[in-house]
Amino acid sequence: MRRIGWFTAGAFFCTGLWSVFVPERQLVLAQLMLVVIFVCLAVAFLRFARAERGVLSAADRWFVALPLGSFLGWITAANAVSLTSEAVRLGLVNGGGASEALLGSTLLLLGGVLAAAVILAGKSGPVQGYLTYAATVLWALVGVVVNKYDASILTTAAALVAAVPVVLALLGRLPGDWSRQGNDDTAARTDVAA
Known about the structure:
Keywords: Membrane, Transmembrane, Transmembrane helix. The protein is mainly alpha-helical. The chain is built from 7 helices and no strands. The protein has one domain. The longest helix has about 30 residues, at about 60-90. Mean pLDDT is about 85; it is low at about 175-194.
């Protein structure tokens, strides 16, 4: 717990700052807080996932891994959506136009790939962590589909496509996993034969 404590505390502290910056319309600072929260939570999540199996109790798995996974999943999705909104607000892309849809779709796809990487890295840890992370990211992508279905077919399609690597990582079906799985199956057959 000492290895993740300061990072989770930092994430909660920055969440509090984000809550102050948004009503004050300090949206660049609010976006910066979302990025810092993501970094803090990602470090905590990965450190927790790499903890030795025997060190973690059932309480650690349910009361730390589960909320940590869902908080990281929420902040992963929030960054993808919020970055698009901030780009529109700053005039970097036109709001409601093709450029906003393209940027939003690109960020959703990158978010899906990033989420798959986090899931794969988290699979060495408690299932409660990476499972709640994946469920939260997928829930957010469903929210994007529902919210953008009538407004942007591109964004809707990107959200659906972004869910694919998340589901594949969750099921262990990414190309890198196939080759490793084949080696594990061969090793298992060799052990059985011996």
